Amino acid sequence: MEKREDLRSILPYLGVVVEGSSLQWPSLVIEPLKAISRGPGHSGIQSGELLFLAISDLRHSLSLSSQCLSASASHGYALFFDELLSTAESTKWFAEVLLALANLLLLFPSLLEFHYRNVDALIDGVQTGLRILNSQQSGIVFLSQELIGALLTCSFFCLFPTSNRDAKHLPMINFDHLFSCLYETNDEKMENKIKCIIHYFERICSHMPTGLVSFERKVLPLEDVALCVTYPKADSWSKSATPLCHFEVHRSGLIEDQSKEALEVDFANRYLGGGALRRGCVQEEIRFMINPELIASMLFFPSMADNEAIKVVGPERFSNYTGYASSFRFAGDYVDKRDVDFIGRHKKKIIAIDALCGMRMRQYRLEYLLREINKAFCGFFYQSKCQQYQRLFKGDGPCGAQLDQGIQGSDSISRSNRSVGLQEAPYVSVGTNEGIHGDEQIGNSEEKGGPSLEHQYDVGVVTGNWGCGAFGGDPEIKTTIQWIAASQALRPFISYHTFGVEALKTLDEVSEWILSHKWTVGDLWDMLVEYSTQRLKGETSLGFFTWLLPSLSAPHDRHD
Description:
Blueprint: H1 5-10, E1 17-19, E2 22-24, H2 27-37, H3 40-43, H4 48-61, H5 73-84, H6 87-118, E3 139-144, H7 145-156, H8 176-185, H9 188-206, E4 212-219, H10 234-239, E5 246-250, E6 262-268, H11 283-290, E7 308-313, E8 319-322, E9 329-333, E10 349-354, H12 366-380, H13 386-394, H14 397-406, H15 439-442, H16 453-456, E11 460-463, H17 475-488, E12 493-497, H18 507-516, H19 521-537, H20 544-551
Parallel strand pairs: 5-12, 6-10, 6-11, 11-12
Antiparallel strand pairs: 1-2, 3-4, 4-7, 7-10, 8-9
Helix pairs in contact: 2-6, 4-5, 5-8, 6-7, 6-9, 8-9, 12-17, 13-14, 17-19
């Protein structure tokens, strides 16, 4: 066990130790956990105040006392369990849920051992064990929902060592700051964030889910790498003759409530989870509260670089909610009825991509447009579809024939030298697993009863105002960037939620006009770059869509 490289990478961050050939809690931890598992009659824990004292004792047994918890954490645990919960809720928590969580902690070492004994058989030739998924290294981790439950219980008890996490660019993982923020702000949104997590614990303690969740780091290499799609240059986007995909506009509804199987975009922080375990309560943080299994990713994902995205498949939703930011409220139980795939993951695919923040006018510079479109493309692309990309870019086969028809005629933009796009993408022979990584390789397992790649390629993108709001992005630019990236990734559609943003009121008209004139990825990218250049020079102050619509009657003039 101790010879496994994956285990060695994560072990300093887990709290358990290797003794002989097995994983164990340090001996001083076991008896206190057993006492808690027998109920308040044995442990004496019947309040949030006493619970935090027990947490402090467990941390001392793990030699974590020198790694200080947030100063107000003790007050936060006491406030939530002793004042904000009703007497009946608090009594049930300490009489039933807490002891079940203690039992789960006692099982934690054996759950880890089972994980490492069995995880290598999931995908032939692909490492899938729990480990630090370092930056610039594509990789995937599969965790059972039971193991995730144990990991989040460790977070609740603040049992994860934290001393070296900053050096590894890892986000916080213990819940002390979450409870501390509750006390310091006395904010209803904080109370309701914690209610979502407490509800999750209640659910898994009454009925432990038995599925799997996968966590994958996707990377667009900056240099040419065999059998990989590499980081596209600006000229490659301009030359792309890929048709734009279908575009749906939704004025109401939420990304997580969509019914189609699709990539659901997480408007992420580069530190995955953002302020989920602090005061944050916008799109990403809310997603982590209603799908708490996402929090487990914060244990082992260092921050994302510009050429990276993170994909999570299978996280179950446990809570309903209303509101947003300060108005966020827990709204009771949610039963996730999504189908599961052949290895037990819910058919829910979340793509985390972090937008640039606070760029103001700099967001219109070519280098930052390129960063944003490649970030989105990294989230949306299929590594396994390199050959199809190359055929489309070269105009070969049926796709090429459709493309030729799409860019002919007086309504289309005159193009030259667009027969090849994204030249950096190397040829991959589809039909083998060569060059295919992580989740996509599962799609080749038809002999195991899994979905075929053709089925996977029906998966579109569901998104919204990525990088706008607090990050300050231009919603018209960010909308267009995501559409271009999804189209280049050969996604069949984008389902876009505007969330009532005024700047997007003409999005239906603009997208319909562009599609009716059969524009390509390169066409729209060139328009975006030209508009942005004019914005930087002060030659226009119009929004992109207002600027674009008058220009459409004579598009040739903009490419001479």
